[in-house]
Task: inverse folding
């Protein structure tokens, strides 16, 4: 249950940031898998942001299929961001409790 005195706000904001990052990365995966128009402003902007957010994970796995490459590398980035965000949420909320 959420507290109403604001003590959990810091941890929850960190996790919210991780979720937003995960959504950006997941959108990029969906756009690539569905062959979205790369000239579209939304697709191009999402690809730019996702590329920057997944910098450490790009080409971690290098299968021959480019769609599988994006799925594996960006999918791993999603998992790491959510795991780190969840741990930081717990640590911050416990520290501020």
Result:
């Amino acid at each position: 249950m959420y507290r109403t005195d604001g003590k959990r706000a810091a941890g929850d904001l960190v996790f919210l940031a991780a979720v937003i990052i995960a959504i950006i990365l997941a959108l990029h995966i969906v756009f690539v898998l569905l062959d979205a128009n790369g000239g579209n402003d939304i697709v191009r902007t999402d690809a730019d942001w996702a590329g920057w957010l997944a910098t450490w994970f790009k080409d971690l796995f290098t299968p021959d299929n480019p769609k599988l490459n994006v799925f594996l590398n960006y999918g791993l980035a999603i998992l790491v961001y959510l795991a780190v965000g969840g741990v930081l949420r717990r640590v911050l909320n416990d520290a501020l409790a």
User: Anything to note?
Assistant: Residues 66-96 form the longest helix (31 residues).
